[in-house]
Amino acid sequence: MSLERDIDLLKSVPFFDGIPAEPLKLLAFSADSREFADGRFLFSAGDPAEGGMIVVEGRVDLVDETRSPPKVLERLGPGALIGELALIVETTRPATAIAVGPARVLVVRRSLFRRMLGEYAEIAVTLRDRIAERLAALSPEIGRIRDVMEGGERR
Q: Fewer Cβ close by (within 10 Å): the C or N end of the chain?
């Protein structure tokens, strides 16, 4: 895939919405392209996450392997970002990712993402605001889950 097509793909990822072409060019040029055959694991739950992955081609299933049988939590296609939190902080993978058919992903290491934020400080502000909005939207849902769990504990 050409650098231009990778940049266009990054532009389509909601997390990168509004980021100018130059920083996206840095990400696309410096990201690692990896190909996976059908059924191959991209990573397993609990693995350290060194950054995010963008699905370029094919499909990837996020699977909860603690269930019997394992449960597909989500099927992701081109343009999906896996592990956006791992772009910013050290974390582990909460689920296993498995290629469904041949798949190609771009791996954006946290160190690369942080370098981009250092070189383009205005992007850090944009992303901080975006993340804050998403957390604010999640807050009522987290409160409802807490209420249900506390109510269940009282019984």
A: C
